[in-house]
Design brief:
With about 140 residues, the chain is α/β, with parallel strands linked by helices. The protein has helices spanning about 15-25, 90-100, and strands at about 5-10, 30-35, 55-60, 65-70, 85-90, 105-110, 120-125, 130-135. The strands form two sheets. A four-stranded mixed beta sheet has the order 1-4-3-2, covered by helices on one side. Strands 5-8-7-6 form a four-stranded mixed beta sheet, covered by helices on one side. It comes from Peribacillus huizhouensis. Pfam families: 3-dmu-9_3-mt. This is PhnB protein.
Length: about 140
């Protein structure tokens, strides 16, 4: 059993997923657009939806993270209701990924020692997604 995360974007999903693939050095994502769906004559696809991402996913440190653009006209609330947590035993990897994600984003807490971790930090990236980085596993 696994818990996967699904992130929605407002027309910039392709840019976001390609950015994350580079940050976390994953395979290039397989992308399906709304235009690649089988057509349904009862619900014709609006032209502006054809190149938007219907679904893609990345495997980040053993976890599936799925991505999609919202369909035109659907409500969108930028990422303040989600945060992804990266737990790693590799401090150099944590520092590298943190530094890459903070470009264009907002750091909530720089990487630092806490009572639960030798290296912890949190940020919101340029796409509005919250990230937490944690070295090792809490002793609490």
């Amino acid at each position: 059993m696994s818990v996967d995360v699904y992130l929605n974007f407002n027309g910039n999903c392709r840019e976001a997923v390609e950015f994350y693939a580079q940050v976390f050095e994953t395979e290039n994502p397989k992308i399906m657009t709304f235009g690649e769906m089988p057509p349904n004559p009862e619900y014709p696809l609006p032209e502006e939806a054809k190149n938007l991402i219907m679904h893609t996913r990345l495997n980040i440190s053993g976890s599936n993270v799925m991505f999609s653009d919202v369909f035109p006209g659907m409500p969108f609330i930028e990422g303040n209701n989600i945060s992804l947590s990266i737990v790693s035993e590799n401090i150099d990897e944590i520092k590298s990924q943190f530094d890459k994600l903070k470009e264009g984003g907002t750091v909530g807490m720089e990487l630092q020692e806490t009572f639960w971790s030798k290296c912890y930090g949190q940020l919101t990236d340029k796409f509005g997604i919250g990230w937490q980085f944690n070295f090792g596993i809490s002793e609490m």
